[in-house]
Amino acid sequence: MSFESPDFRSDISWSTPSAITVFGHDLVDDLVGKVNLGDMGFLELTGRLPTPGESTVFNALTVSLVEHGLTPSAIVTRMTRYGAPESLQSAVAAGLLGLGSTFVGSVEGAARYVQEATLDGDLTKEAAGIVEKFVSAKAIVPGIGHPIHKPLDPRAERLFGLLDEAGLRGPQVTLIREVARQAGDALGKVLPVNVTGAIGAIASRLGIDWRVARGIGVMARAVGLVGHVLEEIRTPTAPAIWREVDEAATRHHG
Amino acid sequence: MSFESPDFRSDISWSTPSAITVFGHDLVDDLVGKVNLGDMGFLELTGRLPTPGESTVFNALTVSLVEHGLTPSAIVTRMTRYGAPESLQSAVAAGLLGLGSTFVGSVEGAARYVQEATLDGDLTKEAAGIVEKFVSAKAIVPGIGHPIHKPLDPRAERLFGLLDEAGLRGPQVTLIREVARQAGDALGKVLPVNVTGAIGAIASRLGIDWRVARGIGVMARAVGLVGHVLEEIRTPTAPAIWREVDEAATRHHG
Amino acid sequence: MSFESPDFRSDISWSTPSAITVFGHDLVDDLVGKVNLGDMGFLELTGRLPTPGESTVFNALTVSLVEHGLTPSAIVTRMTRYGAPESLQSAVAAGLLGLGSTFVGSVEGAARYVQEATLDGDLTKEAAGIVEKFVSAKAIVPGIGHPIHKPLDPRAERLFGLLDEAGLRGPQVTLIREVARQAGDALGKVLPVNVTGAIGAIASRLGIDWRVARGIGVMARAVGLVGHVLEEIRTPTAPAIWREVDEAATRHHG
Amino acid sequence: MSFESPDFRSDISWSTPSAITVFGHDLVDDLVGKVNLGDMGFLELTGRLPTPGESTVFNALTVSLVEHGLTPSAIVTRMTRYGAPESLQSAVAAGLLGLGSTFVGSVEGAARYVQEATLDGDLTKEAAGIVEKFVSAKAIVPGIGHPIHKPLDPRAERLFGLLDEAGLRGPQVTLIREVARQAGDALGKVLPVNVTGAIGAIASRLGIDWRVARGIGVMARAVGLVGHVLEEIRTPTAPAIWREVDEAATRHHG
């Protein structure tokens, strides 16, 4: 393919001297002052603006992931800010780099099996197939279980409630609840649908492609990590973390 | 300082098995489903939730920066996605790394001179001092001028209008307009307050510390760059960019 | 685990006011001025200094990956430098983020199947098992094939020759050559061992864990990307790339 | 400028189906197996291969910066690896992002004042001008002073010794030693030339542009950070760091 090919194109946004168009909307007239930041995220992920119910639910998904205190990502952002105080964007970017398979990646995993399932048939049977696939591979079922929050993850339950209130209930939620129940039975544990599982299922309900579902977490944490830069400027933690870690890890030497 | 010091602390968020608290609010009961993603950004940057007027204005600031098409950041995100398709967060983080002094950095520069000015006195004189400082150093005045949008940047004017509608007009806007007017006179050009200047001035009005003002752009672009990953998955541009750039740049050789 | 646990430790390096120790060597007396940068890479990856033959071969692995012109990574580094000229490390880091599964990741894939094979038995049979596994999954065999360099990748052949000259020939190379031959037969194509395959096999011969084998490419490209920052400072390409890409991709609009 | 402009070009590397050329050298015939990784760094930074003496000195510069234990960068790399174990390059890139003004940035600062000085005149007077400039701005003189290593930084002294042994002594070293002496007098402290100052001065002697001098540190730390990924895989520290930091920082809450 070359620049001359009609397939080389972008339909997200374009500008003229007098207007900026974003997914077909005039940025200044139709978006700025009329929609919120979460709505823009929905627009980026689906190509259309959300209905009021979808807006509430999608914003709730992101809000639930903005902040969880001194996570590894927040520690990374703070340590990076210490070394490069002139570069706020580096501190945030460094923190985002840890949003891989261990944490936010499970949003993607959950959204994937929900989207690959047949949703207009026997959901109990679909769930059984999903659980069997992960359990037989001795793999963790994405979106299920939490080290602290059980028997129910309060964030997950809240999100499901909001989806119901918006009249958007769908088989995606029924399916992941059934996956959690059957996985718990298979493993002899209490396994709630956790917040990343709920987000994966609800994102699927909203039509968001599983291949970018973890982007919901990336958007949200970018917002939260800026707050950690600010607190780090005012009450630094990085020098103490460095000192304590270095002393603890090398105390046998030197 | 050590971990034992009372100064080693974070007041952003903490968890118990039953609750997650964020800036003093219960995440599940008070934030999820009640505030939007932009409001969370305001909360991270100021420590408090916005009033309805502040919510509209702050969301507008972020919405205006989410998307501007195939910027250098979007190109970086797409090229990175090509090399590491398994890592959406890397593609977004790479794109954010270009939000330095050339583009979003001017939000910080504008917010800084607005916040360092005396706002309850003679704003014409304050503006003169600001312009003199930059012009005598042969430096660009941050937040002023735009290669395409002139005599007025439509995004800047829209944001100022929203601030007025919310009853939040303040001397910060008067000051930066005066800076633009005087800088234009000094340089013999038409220099509008551009969108980054408007954001710097309005962020100052909202009480956001200039040291994290560019974080507004970082939050916003993180949202937009996820959309570029999605479009790149569906209609790739990176292989063609690679080919065209490599051929053009090395055509004299080999 | 806590900081008090004897398992919380690092044995890479520690300092006293008078000495810095790195993997048991005195940095100033034993390393600086006595070993080269590639030897330090070998030390980091194996915990010991290389023999002269190992030094030649390992340095050659890295040298072969330092530079390949205007790759996607180099373009990313240059675009990032344009947006954040104050932050050389951001430009290099952004470029490294594209070293994922598409390019350097195949070093890891090749090293993995070489290291998981039984090397003291029938290598033809081992190769058949490896090829069967990838072909039946319709997956690309890592380290095999190249769009430009065929029937042989000159960098791969050079590296294998150096290994022989150093008296370090081993079954790892025999195995990957056999994998390439059988994969070519199975797919009816000419598939050379490419440079990433050669590096994966040779790294295995040198005792480098496949889980960090792509680190050889990361070390090497970090060196090369600094050179692209320098050329970009002197003869910029980023503004032209931005303009050409934006115009080509959005020419149907506006 | 457009792709058609003769100014749009890259002279670093280009390929044909049979050869890869790097700064005019045939990669396979002239570089792989003949030069080491540090020599490639010198080539990227100066456009030419080093003499044997320059090779020893430049490799020594990089070797001195590869490893310094559990620095903030190493902690960042380890925390990022914990969240994204599938992405070694992300862990290394995240660690590099902290190589800003606080640490490696001083290489750049030192190289800059050395390169902006007049070196064929009165170096005592040149040094006085440099010290006056920083002291009057109440700024730290880059490359001078160390919290642990004093009165002399052993790495700096070793590097200066190697430069002498290679017959490359020059006014750059005399100047920075004089800067350190005068700065110490002015501030009433013992201020050695530290390792970053020595590297800045020696890089200047070798003809490396100050605008990319911090790249020496970036190259070196990329090598070291891969080793931290490997140790983190084998003996993890990140989960314990997370737990201890979170508990210490939020112990007043919840």
Automatic annotation (TrEMBL), chains A, B, C, D:
Coiled coil: none annotated. It holds the Pfam family Citrate_synt. GO terms for molecular function: citrate synthase activity; lyase activity. Its EC number is 2.3.3.16. InterPro entries: Citrate_synth-like_lrg_a-sub, Citrate_synth-like_sm_a-sub, Citrate_synthase, Citrate_synthase_sf. It is an enzyme of class 2 (transferase). Belongs to the citrate synthase family. This is citrate synthase (unknown stereospecificity).
